[in-house]
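ok trying again, last paste got cut off:
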Amino acid sequence: MLGNLGSALKKGFDKIAGAIFLDSKTIDIIVKDLQRALIQADVNIMLVKELGDKIRKEASDEKIKGIERKEHLTKILHDEIINLLGKEKHELNIEKGKNNKIMLLGLYGCGKTTTSSKLAAYYSKRGYKVAMLGLDVHRPAAREQLEQLGQKVKVAVFIEKDENDPIKTYKKFKNELDKYDLVIIDTAGRHTLDKELINEIKSLEKEIKPDYTILVIQADIGQAAKKQAHEFQEACNINGVIITRMDSTAKGGGALTACNETKAPVFFIGTGEKPGDFETFNPKAFISRLLGLGDLEGLLEKVQSAVDEKSQEKAKKRLEEGNFNLRDFQEQLKNMGNVGSMSKIVEMIPGLGKAKIPDELLGAQEGKIKKWQYIIDSMTEEEIESPEIIEKQTSRLGRIAKGSGSTTSDIRMLLKQYKLLKELASGSGDLSNIDPSQGLNQKQMMKIAKKFGKKMKF
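nice, full thing came through this time. structure:
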């Protein structure tokens, strides 16, 4: 995602930090590298020129001396890129206990229906009672697609397959929809924002009175996002934007900056196909990730989106009671998979974003997690409940390995990690007297490191 821009920013900061003198030649090289990367990211050329001129002007200020000049230029470079993307993080104000409505608009192919389900999953995981309403009555199979996605994210879906009037569909389900904290409304698209689509949207707005009317735009349209956002804003009074496909294009910079130019705040970005590949857009955190400095807030948000709070509480209780079995362990592995790929998780952890971890190593860890799930699926219920019998009766190892396409070594490694998790969580042995509310002192941390550090292999 915008890798060239991230590389150019890192090089720029490194050149500033490493320069003995910040002369005009050094500044010019930094600015040109940055401008080249911004143009490749499809940012508007006039904006790129303005940014370059501003940085050159600030850098040549003779009142700023020595080390202060480096700090000043670093801050200018950082702040100006954030300004391009929208300065502040914008959030939707969705209140529990109130019937909030979000209506999604967009042209064909922008990903409205998939975004509806991602948005539904995002708020459902946060304890809201969510429903989706399918009002795309023109695109073939649009309502069926929404229904399937709703089942996937476990959210109620209201559709009327034989009704071609979206307002009649809304009126039919209105009383039922009033019972939900949040209703996400998927509307029809067109190839262009024509008069027919504008009239349909205005009729729906008048009838539904949504709290938010949000435009969905795909990142790969780049600078064309400005025209689209402006036209929808003029015709339909949109409150903001969700940008999809941010994972698959270098043109995302164009879409982000174009929306900022139209004063249409970007609320969310889609970064993949899974329901959890969806996050609030925070310009500061976004730049932090591009620079390899991580985004812990974003990572915690992804975890919250991927993990069901009730199932986590159940798993925690089973751990405390000593009833945690391999099926519970498998559920934790699935939750890890829902958070996202290893590469996405790594880039969000401060410090690791800069580390050059080989893609093949990250891929191997993802493969190991999947393999462990296959192994558990190949076990009997007795083995899942009491995995110690597998090691006592080694004939079981061969059967499980054959059924899961793995090796006996893979199974032993899984069992080892499972036992370590149980042991660590139960606070067995000399660690049982640790009071979590008081935190860990250095001596206790050393005990844990000594007891588990050498054993843990992931």
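cool. The mean pLDDT is 79. The chain has 21 helices and eight strands.
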